[in-house]
Amino acid sequence: MTSVHDLEFFRDNGYLLLPNAFTAQEVDALAGRAAEASGSESPQRVMEKDGRLVRAVYGVHLLERTFDLLVRDRRVLEPARDLLGADVYVHQTQLNPKAPLIGDVWEWHQDFLYWARDDGMPRPDVLSVAVFLDDVTEFNGPIFIIPGSHKASLDDETATVADGWETAAQGVRHRIETDTIRGVVEEHGMVSVKAARGSVLIFHGCVLHCSPPNLSPLVRAILFIRYNAITNTLRTIPNPRPEWVASRRPSVVEPLDEPFLAAAVR
Ligand code: MN
What we know:
With about 270 residues, the protein is α+β, with helices and mostly antiparallel strands. The protein has helices at about 5-15, 25-40, 60-65, 65-70, 75-85, 110-120, 180-190, 260-265; strands spanning about 15-20, 45, 55-60, 90-95, 105-110, 125-130, 145, 160, 175, 190-195, 200-205, 210, 220-230. The strands form three sheets. The protein has a seven-stranded antiparallel sheet with strand order 1-11-6-13-4-3-2. A hairpin with a 6-residue loop joins strand 2 and strand 3 (about 55-60). The chain starts with a helix and ends with a helix. The chain binds manganese (II) ion. Manganese (II) ion binds next to loops.
């Protein structure tokens, strides 16, 4: 049960950090599966500009049972349901390995504007749940967040600058005007979310966020689960993106009765 304090913090700030939600053993297991997913060639994989290192792998819960169990683990599912006030389904999962010295920038953006424009998502009743598979420090590309920015509608200040989807665009596709970002930062400030591996960062679909390059010699992998309210399923649109980047087969995620790793070894 998410505490009143956490619910209020999220309502005001648009994000919530749950430190050390998962054990070292659990993170080891997730990191191992993540390395396998990164190492396997598939259309779900997006490369960095160098063409060699992996920038992202989409739909990992469809590839690997451990991740499918993770999305049902109460430690991530229950806060998501509490914060959205609804049953949820998985819109998307995404592994970002952020390779040492190469792992590149993700520019300022609101996730929901992508999902609204590219996938036909009706409302921002959607969350990103980031599971930290490594310690996230100021050196290895932490997520920058503008607290309270989830209350700002930036649709009019966001230009669509490229076609295609993530495989085609290593940069942003929907770019927010710099003056707009400056204005929101002047009003709300910024936080850089640093926490130990096993921690979980939840943020609202409209929170303005970005991530700098990883200039450290250490990997910084984060696994994102995007939970969408079951009342907010995607509209039918022409040329929908693949199932593994934007689900059109919503089914309510039911919680496990045990930690994901206990279920995984069964
Ligand atoms: Mn994002």
